[in-house]
Write a structure and sequence with these properties.
Blueprint: E1 9-10, H1 16-19, H2 22-29, E2 33-35, H3 37-43, E3 52-54, E4 61-63, E5 66-72, E6 81-86, E7 91-95, H4 103-108, E8 114-118, H5 123-128, H6 133-140, H7 148-157, E9 165-169, H8 178-186, E10 194-197
Parallel strand pairs: 1-2, 2-3, 7-8, 8-9, 9-10
Antiparallel strand pairs: 4-5, 5-6, 6-7
Bound molecules: zinc ion (2 copies).
Length: 215
């Protein structure tokens, strides 16, 4: 996708792997940015000369023909949200950077056609890794990142009646493998649901969510 095709940028939280480069890109291509007030406060020094809009949990907004609904997630940032995107036909849920499941996020992600879901680490690999204890605690803690197991528990609890594809994402290069993440997600899903694993370096190819793919 070329910058000319983009109508805006949504930011989930201030951590560098999500907000780094956003404002430079927005300035260069004159794109507006949506973010929460808490995220803005954390990175306001980078916001000069950028058009931005505040968003908050539970209040939908539109970018062209897409409706976006931010929802709060438990993560160690100032006011982190993730988004559900709806074009009137299909609903896409995105969840990365959350330390544990909450009823709020499970409700927000219900009845999606597609899901992008964090599978950050395998608990055993994280516990055996060379990371310092404090980092292990942060990643595995209630405001850190989703393990494969927690991701599969979330998936299990969701309304999956419309789900056609799930993409495992935000995998740790050191504490996870695509095979483990895929197995965890597949273990709680019917076979008709496609599982794709996004790689930290290359992401994933364009994938379809068309209604006809259901049949
Ligand atoms: Zn984060
Ligand atoms: Zn992250």
């Amino acid at each position: 996708m070329l910058p000319g095709d983009l109508a805006g940028i949504i930011v989930t939280h201030e951590h560098q792997d999500h907000a780094g480069g956003v404002f430079k890109f927005a300035r260069r291509h004159r794109l507006p940015v949506w973010l929460t007030f808490g995220t803005y406060q954390a990175i306001r020094a980078q916001c000069d000369d950028v058009v931005f809009h505040f968003c908050r949990d539970g209040e939908a907004f539109a970018i062209e023909d897409l409706q976006l609904l931010p929802y709060t997630v438990p993560h160690d940032a100032r006011e982190p949200v993730q988004y559900v995107v709806n074009n009137g036909v299909l609903k896409l849920g995105v969840l990365t950077d959350a330390g544990h499941a909450t009823p709020h996020l499970i409700s927000a992600l219900g009845a999606c056609d597609g899901l992008l879901l964090e599978c950050n680490h395998d608990r055993q690999m994280l516990s055996n890794s060379a990371y310092p204890a404090s980092l292990k605690q942060r990643i595995g803690g209630d405001y850190g990142h989703l393990s494969n197991q927690t991701a599969s528990e979330i998936l299990h609890a969701l309304d999956k009646s419309r789900l056609k594809r799930v993409v495992g994402a935000h995998l740790s290069l050191k504490n996870n493998t695509s095979e483990l993440a895929r197995a965890a997600l597949a273990s709680v899903m019917e076979e008709r649901v496609e599982v794709t694993i996004a790689c930290q370096e290359d992401g994933f190819d364009w994938v379809g969510l068309a209604r006809s793919a259901m049949n």
